[in-house]
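2 proteins. here.
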Amino acid sequence: MKPARLHYFYAHNWPGRLWVLAAPLAGAGLMAVALGPMPDLETPLSRDARGYLLLLALGALLGWFIGGLAGVFVLGPLYYHRSQLNGAPFVAGDRVLILRGRDRGQVLTVVESLDYRGSLRLANGRYYDALHVIRDGDARAPM
C-alpha cells in the first residue's frame, strides 16, 4: 500500500499539534466574546487595557488546560482509529513500511508487538508506534 498524505499527517502528530494550538485560541476567543469590545485605549498600557489583556491571557490558559483534558477523549480514539486503518494490530512477521524517522521509507519485519503500549519492535531493533508504520501490502503473517 502506498502511503497517502493523510498517513504522514498522523505519523507526524499534526492533529495533536493543531489541537494544542486551537484550544488556547478558542479560550481567548470565547473570553473576548464574553468581555465584549476592547476598551478605548488612551495609552497603550492603561488600566483597562491591561485588565482586558490579562483576562484574554487567562482565557487562553484556561483553554489550554481544558483542551488538554478534552484532548485525551478526542485524540486518543482518533489516533486509535488511524492505527487500525494503518493495519494494526500487528503481529510478529508482518512487513511494515516506516513512515517517520531516520528509517523512513524502509520496509521491515515486525519482531515483537507490544499491544499494551501500541508499540512495535522491528527487525532493525528500534521501537515504533503503530501510527508511524503502515502494513506493506495486504499480506498478514501466518498465525
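next one coming up
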Amino acid sequence: MFLGYFGWTTTAPAILGEIITAPLNVNAMTWRTCPAATELETLVIDWIRQWMDLPREFGGVVYDTASVGVMHALAVAREEAAPSVRKRGLIGAGAPVFRIYASEQAHSSAEKAAIALGLGEENVQRVPADANFCMDPSALREMIERDVRDNFKALAVIATVGTTSTASVDPVPEIARICRENKMWLHIDGAYGAGFAILPENKRLTNGWGEADSIVVNPHKSLFVPLDFSVLYVRDLDRLRRVFTLVPEYLRGDTVEVQKNYMDYGIQLGRRFRALKAWMIFRSFGREGMA
C-alpha cells in the first residue's frame, strides 16, 4: 500500500524548496509577516489557474488538503444562502435544513465538511452513479425536486473530476445547468483529476468548469508537488474573505489593507510557506515540462 494513496509526487526542486522553507520558518498569514510568501502564493495560484483555463474571475488560496478546501467552499455557500449564520449561528439565523448532493462515488470529505459546518452528515445526499461510475444528472434532479417539496433547502452539488475509487468524471455541464436552475452552489472536487487537465489531450475535462462557484485541485497528487499542497479556487475570491475575515486588535498592526492577507481566506492564522516548493518546481520544469 505504499503507493496506494498518491504519495509519490515529489521532485528534486520541491525537496530543495522544503529544505529552504523549514529553517526560514516564516508565518505566511499576512503580507507584512512575509511578503515573499504572499507574492509567490498568488503567483503560483494564478499559474495553475491559467494552465487549467479557468476564467480570470477565479481567485485561489493554498490549503493543506482538498477536505479543508471543500469545507471552506461549503461555508461560503451556507453563508450566502443564510447571510446571518456567521454572526448568529444556524439556529439563531433561522436557517433551513440544508442538503448537499454528491455522487455515491464521491469522496467522504463531503460528510466531514457537513459535520464541521453543523449541516449534519445525513444531509449529504448520495446520488446514484451510472454504468461508468459518474453521477446521474436525472437522479440528481429528481432528488433535488423531492427535497424541495419536503421543505429542505438544496444548497450545493459536489461534482467530482477523478473519483478516488475509479477516477470517473461527473458530467459537469449537465450538473452546472441543474445548479443554475435551482440557484445552488456548484463545487468541483478536482483533487485527483483536475491537475491532469493541463495536458492538451485532457482539455475536455474542463468542460463546464467556468460555471462553477468553487474548484479544488491538489498539485500534491498530479503536479509533482509533495504533501501538502491543495488549492481552492472561488469565483470572486472576496466571497471567501467576507465569510472568514476577522482581525483582532493584536493583529491590526500586521495587516496592510492594500495587500492580500491570506489569513482572511480561511480559519488558519499560522500558515506555512507552501508556495516556495511549488514555485521552484514550476520554474524548473516550465509549463511544457509540467505537461
